[in-house]
Amino acid sequence: MRDVTLSSLERLGLETAGAEDTLTFSMDEDAFRLFYDRTARPVWAYLARITGDRQLADDLLQESYYRLLRSRAASEIDDEAHRRNYLFRIATNLAHDARRRAPAETTSLDDGPGGSVHDHADPQSAGDAAGRAVERMDLSRAMKQLKPRERSLLWLAYAQGSTHVEIAQTLGLKTGSIKPLLFRARRRLSALLLGGAR
Amino acid sequence: MNACPREPEVIEAVTRGEWMQGAPGVDDLRAHAAACAACGELVTLAQALREDHAVVCRAANVPAAGTVWWRATIRARAEAAEKASRPITLAQGLAGAAVAGVAATFAGIAWRLFPTFAQPDPLVMLALGLGVCIVVAPLVVVFTLARD
């Protein structure tokens, strides 16, 4: 692909006399800011948990919003809940594509700052926090051993509280298949956690 | 273990954050979950995942909305520029191919007209080299400038 330098971009901007007009985004800047502020953290958390990689989640977050902005289908969505589901669907597809390209998980979610480190002056609360951190670590490890679709199902259903219809829309599955798939995923996670506790 | 028909009620109470707060009707569900293996497991996992969700969301260091918007704008312009320049690149490629074709044709004709090429004369080789340079040099300049 031919490189496009800044000078050619500037030239294009001058030639088109208001390049903003040529950019077809599915929403305007104000609407985007509002939507982003409400959804960015849950989307990042979702990506981080299903990929298990903090850096990849950063990249995919940016890409997800870009694809949403450039999507013609998204421009026809007025309802924020639907737009949110659409965004999660994009994020899911990107995460699956990234996994197919590079299956190795590199930067663990619990390795970086803010992952599991908390400051607690009170020893009792520090003990509780340490216990919770260990539980979270176990959960994180167990989640990594699940299939990607199982991770998505569990996260959407229980961490985010999405309905079966929303999960089906996000994962591109039939609504009727969500219940048994979710039950199976739950059983697997439970077995992994119990196995880790022994 | 089989799924329990009361799971939707249980999960709704957990995801709404009512489980720990003791909202009306939750006591009955709690008593049920204490006796039902499926619902007990569901509560444990859902609470752990919800807590994890809260912690991961707090730890999320997402860029500002303005930054994401700005990057998207830059990228969209770059894509537009790339799209706009595609026909020019195609035309340049076709022109290059045409020049190469013409050069090859002339070389073929010259080969037939001057059979001495079979035993190359240094002067003829020099002339041929210069000719190739004259044809290739402008193309190199065009492609180099096109990249800038």
How would you describe this protein?
- The complex is a heterodimer of chains A (198) and B (148).
- In chain A, helix 2 runs antiparallel to helix 3 and helix 2 crosses helix 5.
- Chain A has 198 residues and is mainly alpha-helical.
- Chain A contains nine helices and no strands.
- The N and C termini of chain A lie far apart (54 Å).
- Chain A is 72% helix and 0% strand.
- Chain A has two domains: 83 residues, Orthogonal Bundle (Rna Polymerase Sigma Factor, Chain: A); 74 residues, Winged helix-like DNA-binding domain superfamily/Winged helix DNA-binding domain (Arc Repressor Mutant, subunit A, Orthogonal Bundle), CATH 1.10.10.
- The N terminus of chain A is likely disordered.
- By secondary structure, chain B is an all-alpha fold.
- Chain B is rod-shaped and about 105 Å long.
- At the A-B interface, helix 1, helix 2, helix 3, helix 6 and helix 7 of A face helix 1, helix 3 and helix 4 of B.
Outline of the structure:
The complex is a heterodimer of chains A (198) and B (148). Chain A has 198 residues and is mainly α. Chain A is built from nine helices and no strands.
Features:
heterodimer, A: 198 residues, mainly alpha, 0% strand, disordered N terminus, B: 148 residues
